[in-house]
From TrEMBL, chains B, D:
<dbReference type="InterPro" id="IPR017871">
    <property type="entry name" value="ABC_transporter-like_CS"/>
</dbReference>
<dbReference type="GO" id="GO:0006824">
    <property type="term" value="P:cobalt ion transport"/>
</dbReference>
<keyword id="KW-1003">Cell membrane</keyword>
<dbReference type="Pfam" id="PF00005">
    <property type="entry name" value="ABC_tran"/>
</dbReference>
<keyword id="KW-0472">Membrane</keyword>
<keyword id="KW-0813">Transport</keyword>
<dbReference type="InterPro" id="IPR003439">
    <property type="entry name" value="ABC_transporter-like_ATP-bd"/>
</dbReference>
<dbReference type="InterPro" id="IPR015856">
    <property type="entry name" value="ABC_transpr_CbiO/EcfA_su"/>
</dbReference>
<dbReference type="GO" id="GO:0043190">
    <property type="term" value="C:ATP-binding cassette (ABC) transporter complex"/>
</dbReference>
UniProtKB/TrEMBL annotation, chain C:
<comment type="similarity">
    <text>Belongs to the CbiQ family.</text>
</comment>
<dbReference type="InterPro" id="IPR052770">
    <property type="entry name" value="Cobalt_transport_CbiQ"/>
</dbReference>
<dbReference type="GO" id="GO:0043190">
    <property type="term" value="C:ATP-binding cassette (ABC) transporter complex"/>
</dbReference>
<dbReference type="GO" id="GO:0006824">
    <property type="term" value="P:cobalt ion transport"/>
</dbReference>
<feature type="transmembrane region" description="Helical">
    <location>
        <begin position="231"/>
        <end position="251"/>
    </location>
</feature>
<keyword id="KW-1003">Cell membrane</keyword>
<feature type="transmembrane region" description="Helical">
    <location>
        <begin position="68"/>
        <end position="88"/>
    </location>
</feature>
<keyword id="KW-0812">Transmembrane</keyword>
<feature type="transmembrane region" description="Helical">
    <location>
        <begin position="108"/>
        <end position="128"/>
    </location>
</feature>
């Protein structure tokens, strides 16, 4: 769920950029260290990043009938860890803004925080936790992908609520408002994405 | 040339071919098979690339072997995608078994069951973890039950001579094997029309010959087989009928001998006279082949005629 | 995606230095976010539309289509801001109450919509006049680490290769009725997504060999043929943005 | 056959080819160019696929046009990767300009500068956002400065006739155009040896001819050009010398006419006699071509001889 260009007031745009920047910078540092040790990883990282972008062009059906875009960053997190995934996710979001006019430059920081940082970290740590607790791979990946998606959606709603608190009920009222407006599309989507990722996981095990 | 498409006007005149009153219509083909697929005045344009096809007429009969011949970028692939119902024509009509193409879900499904398309690159088509699963993809989507699907898959694999590959993962196969698997995947849906985009591209000479033989056997069993290619020698060796592509249209359509006699037209389209045809024609003209024989379609046939004639 | 990209590559302003176009885009966004009132936002939107369609020669329908996707989010977002949620506390039968927000808040919501539209028009200007790799090259010049910029540039290349793979793969599945029902849809999408990953990694490995044959050992240096930005024009753009700031502050 | 590799023993006997005392050695070629690249007893095995090459000897001379002919999977691509220094042979030695291949970074870089490889799929080699930038990659890696690089890029683009594509992104090009760009990218490094893996695969007849002409011009200017292909007609039309691949080895190596006269050997290797060669040979045997001429290498040459002879 992308926040559009210009939708956030200038203070919020700057603040979210400041929050995301250190994470992306740290991820970049790790990425640089990795490719310096192993130049061919540069090509593999780029190919995986492109894969993450392309997954977002894969339309999946949700129960309500609307189609949308799975993020795929969870998968990148499982391949390269959440830090490098955050960098790849940032590049993907920049590409989406400039190739599809989806998202934006001033809202890049906010979108990176929800989609390239929180989502993948939730998905990645859930997957590791569930696997550690002995849950089957496909089940773990279902919850990781679905809840990673939901985490993104919750964070986006909070970001919007922080920028536009409700005149009556303040931040929490606005959060409830944004959560429920986008719930219709996002919850079925999260389930679809969880199912899809679980099937993909099973198929990849067999390749 | 016994068939010439009405829309081919300007290029036809430029090439010096004689116009023919016989427009490509429905009904029975010279060979006697029923008309299974027909295009009338088909036009198409991509948003970025502009117009790629204009006024294409084509009819296809059961059991026929048709070659779409043309240079790269002449629109062959686009026509195949249109015939397979994967693109919607901007103008013109498409008929399958005499019925126009509907837009309902049911009609689209029926069309895809009837007209199968094999893509040029088998990697674009093979996604399942094993050959068996990949070939079963189509029949299962058609709603076949497990037993019928298994039967169809086995039959398709046998028809292509790859029954032994059933349990292999596609990515472990050679290019030629992948090609056969991708054809089996379409064949298992038992289409009435089989369209193939450059099926012999990337195959070595022996694999080419084997594949063309398999396709000929399919046509003999009643399937209409359409092959798009830029290899003229292949067209001459294999086709019942050839549709020549150029300038976004079918410029000429007819039996191979008539098509390849028009040298100036071939040149305009950046195509070559098939070698075997050219040699045979010149030898026949010089009286070196025994008279009364059709021009030979294979090297072996030419050589045997040559030994009779001299 | 293909259409927006091809307009950027073939457009009249393709050869203008990316730095100048980025400067203009960010400058206008800054004015829109920090200075302009409702009238100013309308002015900015009109100016950017004029610049994109009129001067840079982007086809009108392409421009409109690029605006369509953000428009959906904007309408939904602004409508959400029109409604206020309240909790009735402690009373029996109480619960959530919905109400229209007061007029001043409605005006504020409309203003957010206008501001967002103005910024989107600046983004679309950049997207439709500048090939994406030119911006990546610029970012590298501005200090983004070379390896990160390399990965971004390679991603741009791979993305078209995979996009082609996705498109034809989906077509071939459609031809075999892979999307005929909802359950088959999910299964087909998963097959496609799973199949693309090994293909993507394979592409990466093969490209590595292809580049090593040309002497690749970790650095992807190339010679850019883009013109250097002129300081004069950059100054002109900065001046223009300042004037725009002044005008929008004046009209409110 | 004036050259036969000593390691080809068993298959050579099986095929009935006469052994020749002339082992492929260093020194001057029949054509007079200096020996630029030489392989002696090269062997290679992939960890998954096992042995793919065994005892390969090959020498290559400046300005020579060599065709590596063989069925798919016969090891042509592996040999090219070895010659290009991208794989390390398990056994045998490789010499470039008489110097063995070193392992230092500097030596590897020098090798890549001297021996260029064009991959079959141009998408494996095109990475940069524009054609110009892509072609500049090689020269920059060689340490050329901006001015020299620019000059080399321009020259390479001109040699392939694609100067007008310089500012285009690779994803907007046709397959044939990409192919030319990938060749230009290697050519800009000004290698002494240019290796091409199936360069005409996927091109239509006209594009094929154009490309082979371009490659012939390159060879004429002194570059040794090696083309791997399974199209025998192309080998016949273009090669100075042909190395026949089969059973993980080079089974025979020599001038085209000698190679293609050995029909039983071709059959063993699942290859075909080139159509033009076969026709011309039989016509000449039947006395239908004027005597004293070498067998024609092009369709046009055959037809003109035919009109003289009859």
């Amino acid at each position: 769920m992308h926040i559009m260009e210009g939708f956030l007031p200038v203070g919020h745009a700057v603040a979210w950029t400041a929050v995301s920047a250190p994470v992306v910078a740290y991820g970049s540092w790790r990425l640089i260290r990795t490719v310096r040790q192993n130049p061919e990883l540069k090509l593999l990282l780029a190919a995986s990043g492109a894969y993450v972008f392309i997954l977002s062009a894969l339309k999946i059906p949700s129960v309500t009938g609307s189609c949308s875009h799975p993020t795929g960053t969870g998968l990148a997190a499982s391949l390269f860890g959440p830090w490098i995934a955050a960098v790849l996710g940032t590049i993907v979001l920049l590409f989406q803004a400039l190739l599809l006019a989806h998202g934006g430059l001033t809202t890049l920081g906010a979108n990176v925080f929800s989609m390239a940082i929180v989502g993948p970290i939730v998905a990645w740590s859930l997957f590791r936790g569930l696997r550690g607790a002995g849950v089957a791979g496909a089940v773990a990946i279902f919850f990781a992908a679905a809840l990673g998606d939901l985490a993104t959606y919750v964070v986006t709603s909070f970001q919007l609520a922080a920028a536009f608190p409700d005149p009556v009920s303040g931040f929490w009222g606005a959060s409830a408002k944004f959560l429920s407006v986008f719930a219709l599309t996002q919850i079925p989507l999260a389930i679809s994405e969880g199912l899809l990722t679980a099937i993909v996981y099973n198929l990849l095990q067999r390749y | 040339m016994d068939r010439l498409d009405p829309a081919a006007g300007p290029a036809r005149e430029a090439s010096g071919a004689r116009p023919s009153p016989d427009a490509s219509g429905a009904g029975l083909s010279p060979g006697g098979g029923a008309c299974v697929l027909e295009a009338r005045g088909l036009g198409f344009a991509y948003p970025e690339a502009g117009e790629v096809l204009r006024g294409v007429d084509l009819s296809l009969h059961a059991g026929e072997r048709l070659v779409l011949a043309g240079a790269n970028g002449s629109g062959k692939t686009t026509l195949l995608l249109l015939l397979a119902g994967l693109l919607t024509p901007r103008e013109g009509t498409l008929l399958c078994d005499g019925q126009p193409r509907g837009r309902s879900r049911r009609a689209v499904r029926a069309w895809h069951s009837r007209v199968g398309l094999v893509f040029q690159d088998p990697d674009d088509q093979l996604f399942a973890p094993t050959v068996f699963e990949d070939v079963s993809f189509g029949p299962l989507n058609q709603g076949c039950d497990a037993a019928l699907t298994r039967q169809r898959v086995d039959r398709a694999l046998a028809a292509l001579g790859i029954a032994d590959l059933a349990e292999r993962p596609p990515h472990s196969l050679s290019f030629g094997q992948k090609k056969r698997v991708s054809i089996a995947g379409v064949l298992a849906m038992e289409p009435g029309v089989l369209l193939l985009d450059e099926p012999t591209a990337g195959l070595d000479p022996e694999a080419c010959e084997d594949l063309l033989e398999t396709l000929a056997a399919l046509a003999a069993s009643g399937t209409a087989v359409v092959v798009a290619t830029h290899t003229m020698d292949e067209a001459w060796a294999w086709a019942d009928r050839i549709a020549l592509f150029g300038g976004q249209r079918i410029v000429a359509c007819g039996p191979p001998e008539a098509i390849f006699r028009d040298l100036s037209l071939l040149e305009t389209l950046h195509l070559r006279e098939p070698l075997l045809f050219g040699v045979a024609r010149r030898l026949a003209d010089a009286g070196l082949l025994p008279p009364g024989h059709p021009l030979p379609r294979t090297q072996a046939a030419l050589f045997s005629l040559l030994s009779q004639g001299t | 995606m293909r259409q927006l990209d091809s307009v950027a590559w073939t457009g009249r302003w393709k050869r203008r230095p990316a730095a100048e176009k980025l400067c203009l885009c960010l400058g206008v966004m800054t004015v829109s976010l920090a200075v302009a009132g409702p009238g100013g936002q309308v002015l900015i939107f009109a100016l950017m539309a004029l610049l994109t369609v009129g001067l840079a020669g982007v086809p009108f329908w392409t421009w409109l289509r690029a605006l369509l996707l953000p428009a959906g989010f904007l309408v939904l977002g602004v409508l959400t801001l029109f409604v206020s949620v309240g909790w009735a506390e402690g009373e029996a039968g109480g619960g959530v109450t919905l109400a229209l927000v007061p007029p001043t808040d409605r005006e504020a919501a409309v203003f957010v919509g206008l501001r967002s539209a103005a910024c989107v028009s600046a983004l679309v200007f950049l997207a439709l006049t500048t090939p994406l790799p030119a911006l990546m090259t610029l970012l590298r010049r501005l200090g983004v680490p070379r390896d990160v910029a390399d990965v971004a540039l390679l991603m741009f290349r791979f993305l078209w290769l995979l996009f082609h793979c996705l498109e034809t793969g989906r077509r071939s599945q459609t031809a075999r009725l892979g999307y005929a029902s909802r359950s088959r849809w999910l299964r087909s999408s998963a097959l496609l997504a799973a199949g693309l990953l090994p293909r993507a990694l394979d592409r990466g490995t093969r490209m590595d060999a292809g580049l090593r044959a040309r002497g690749y050992d970790g650095s992807l240096a190339t010679l850019s043929s883009e013109e250097r930005p002129s300081l004069l024009r950059l100054g002109g753009i900065a001046g223009g943005v300042l004037v725009l700031g002044g005008v929008t502050a004046w009209i409110g």
